[in-house]
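REQUEST ID: PR-0412
SUBMITTED BY: lab tech R.K.
PRIORITY: routine
TASK: structure prediction, single protein chain
INPUT:
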Amino acid sequence: MFRIAFILLFLAACTPMGPGGSLATPASGITGHVSRQVVISDHPHHVLVGEAMIVSQNGATHYSVTIGQAWDGVHRRLRMDHAWADGRSLPFRRVSRAERVCVGQNNCYGHRIGIIALSADMFSRAADSGLRARLTGPDAAIDIEIPAILFQEALLRRSGQL
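STATUS: complete
OUTPUT:
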C-alpha cells in the first residue's frame, strides 16, 4: 500500500502544470487571461497550485488568484474559509466542495479550494512583489506564496504581449 501511495505522489509531482492562456466567449461577452499554474504550497499532506486571472465582462474587470489542491490519492480536500496577508483579511471566496481543478492538461482529479479577489492596485503590486498569504479554515492554516511572474503573465496576456 505504501508503495502505491508513493508512486501516486511521485506521478502527481511530475505532472506538468497548466500553461495558461487567453479565452473569449462571444455569447456571454466574457474575455479572460490566465497565467500558468505553479505550486504555491508544497507539504507532505497537500500540494496547492495557483494561477492569476483577469476576467472582463460588460466593461467590468475582475482580478483574482484561483487556488486548487492537487489530488494525491490519499488526502481529502482541504476546506479553507479565509485568506490573510499582512494582518488583513483578503476577499476570499470558498467554492463548492464538488468543484474540480485540473492540474496540467490531463489531471482533473484535484479540488478547487477558493478564489482570492484582488483590486487592480493589489494585482499591480503583486506583479512587482508577488503575494504571500495564509489560508485558514477548519482543516488547516496554510501559508501560500504566489510569485510575481504569475501576475505579470496575466497582465502581458491581456496586453497581447504574451
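NOTES: The helical segments are 2-14, 120-129, 148-159.
REVIEWED BY: pending
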